[in-house]
Design a protein that fits this description.
Helix content is about 55%, strand content about 10%. It is mainly α. It is globular.
């Protein structure tokens, strides 16, 4: 993200990169800021925001919300919690396609990247900034899609169904109680 912001800052002199959240102890702010090159003086590290309302306010003020990521199996199987918050914030979202491509349509509900290259991430961010009308449509469609995907009643039904299937499978696979007890006594 920081390397991508170097390119964005060159083309967009008013751009500011705001990072909220804890930094891992192995990172120093100055070292991270240096990765932004020409944009290093436009990087703001806010730290962890304890009040959720502060985070919501920050997201609604952003021109674009970004969750970068590489096209790895790890990223395909995870769903960063912040992405649904980003989508619900009603701002254009740029995120990695691995995993999300199964849920979101590129340039319709989010702007997706297909590599870990900073130049591709910068181009996706710049697409949002260059195309405000289309970016607004992406943001609105992304918010609608998030409401479909993450509706609380849907999540509850899906979670209950998952646990019911898991319990049924566990009951079917369990040996009769007498054999279970015999196994435990043998230990």
């Amino acid at each position: 993200m920081l390397r991508a912001f170097d390119s964005v800052a060159e083309c967009w002199p008013d751009a500011v990169l705001v990072y909220s959240g804890r930094l891992a102890p192995r990172y120093r702010e100055a070292d991270l800021r240096a990765l932004a090159g020409a944009g290093s003086d436009k990087v703001r590290f806010l730290g962890f925001l304890e009040d959720p309302d502060d985070l919501v306010a920050l997201m609604t003020e952003a021109s674009v919300l970004v969750q970068p990521g590489a096209p790895t199996e790890f990223n395909r199987l995870r769903l960063p919690a912040k992405v649904h918050d980003y989508l619900l914030a009603g701002q254009p979202v740029v995120t990695f396609s691995v995993g999300f491509r199964e849920l979101l349509t590129d340039r319709h509900e989010a702007v997706l990247t297909y590599s870990a290259r900073p130049d591709e991430l910068a181009a996706a961010i710049e697409w949002v900034l260059i195309n405000p009308r289309r970016a607004r449509a992406v943001a609105e469609a992304g918010r609608r899609r998030a409401r479909e995907l993450f509706a609380p009643d849907l999540i509850v039904r899906q979670t209950l169904a998952y646990y019911e299937r898991a319990l049924k499978h566990a009951d079917e696979a369990a040996p009769p109680p007498a054999r279970r007890l015999a196994r435990w006594r043998a230990v």
